[in-house]
Amino acid sequence: MAAYDLIVIGAGIVGSACAERAAVEGLRVAVVEPGPVGGGATAAAMGHLVAMDDDPAELALSRYSLQLWQRYAGLADAEFSRCGTLWVARTVREYDGIAAKIARLAAAGGQARQIDAEELYRLEPALAPGLRGGMLVADEAVVYPPRVALHLLERARAGGADCRLGRRASALSARGVRLDDGSELTGPVLVATGCALPELLPQLPMRARKGHLVITERYPGRVRHQLLELGYADSAHGDADSSVAFNVQPRPTGQLLIGSSREFGVEGREVSWPMLQRMLERAFEYLPMLRELQALRVWTGFRPTTPDGRPYIGAVADRAHTWVAAGHEGLGVTTALGTAQLLIDQMLGRAPQIDMAPFSPARSLR
């Protein structure tokens, strides 16, 4: 029976980041992952590093985590690109609301500026005519999440982590966790399994929210910034059964990554052609030239979503020596590094850098 200071279940970007931070702290770490590293929600993430201002708690977590992402700005495998984020205003109401958004970002340590329609089209000439302007957040970036997850896990392994890849955690035990091969690992457990969280911690509710992504052939220079509509937060944080929003990213490869769609109550991974068409039509409304491009691949994934939309980060109150980091919905990549640091700080008895009460798992115990 192997004993550890921390057993991380799940090697998506959040679990891998937690394992890496624990190993850096000198803890004896094990990682249990049944599938490919970063093969779940991480593989279906757009990879944006972006701060959304509609929830003060998540804004604080995002801003804290974005500072930590500076460590990987030079990592070639991460496909880190500081392309900046351009939030596009379609209506006068959206444009008039930008000043308040800038103020909220500034209060959290971020920088953004309002741009008029003339500058909007100078920055992105291919946008549809008639848009009002936008908000530019110049220092935000995109990454390729599966490679980041793999890099973080390799760093954890270099720090001594025991990676049990191809093994599934079948149940939590009084002393740790039992694996599907009958073995048992002992020590504190961190469950970072995303949508699968209820399999081990059924007291913490979680819903899977399906999304579609499209990536094109290489078209360098067509889009310079990550583009999102200012109504994106309504889709991301709303509770509608289905929704779409305009979100297009230029990748360092010259490809364009197109999102985003959200669906509750859908279990199959197959592509829904009506939903895909709805998502693409939304993108065409903002960026008509996309109609001319060749798509290379379409795929789907599931975002782990808690009842109030905020992730669970911290100790599980009704189970000793058990921790959780899951439920980040569409901000798992942005907040992975911050989540890891804040969680390890709590485990080691250090004061976290932000208020963790909004993310306490105790708020949602059944």
Question: Care to give the gist of this entry?
Answer:
The protein is α/β, with parallel strands linked by helices and 366 residues long.
Topology of helices and strands:
Elements (H helix, E strand, L loop, with lengths): L1 E2 L2 E4 L3 H12 L4 E5 L14 E2 L6 H13 L16 E5 L2 H5 L1 H10 L5 E4 H7 L9 E5 L3 E2 L2 H14 L3 E4 L3 E4 L3 E4 L4 E3 L2 E3 L5 H4 L6 E12 L7 E4 L2 H5 L5 E9 L4 E10 L8 H14 L8 E11 L6 E4 L6 E5 L5 H16 L19
Parallel strand pairs: 1-12, 2-3, 2-13, 3-9, 5-15, 13-20
Antiparallel strand pairs: 4-8, 5-7, 6-7, 10-11, 11-12, 14-17, 14-18, 15-16, 16-17, 19-20
Helix pairs in contact: 1-6, 1-10, 2-10
**Count of individual helical segments:** 10
How many strands? 20
- For the termini, the CA-CA separation is 32 Å
- Strand pairing plus helix content: what structural class? alpha/beta
| Range of strand content | 25-35%
What percentage of residues falls in helices of 4 or more residues? 25-40%
Uncertain ranges: none
Q: What is the spatial order of strands in the main beta sheet?
A: 6-7-5-15-16-17-14-18
Report the principal-axis shape. Answer: globular
Largest sheet: 8 strands, mixed
Query: N-to-C SSE series?
Result: EEHEEHEHHEHEEHEEEEEHEEHEEHEEEH
> Rounded to an integer, what's the Rg over CA atoms?
20 Å
Give the averaged pLDDT, no decimals.
Answer: 95
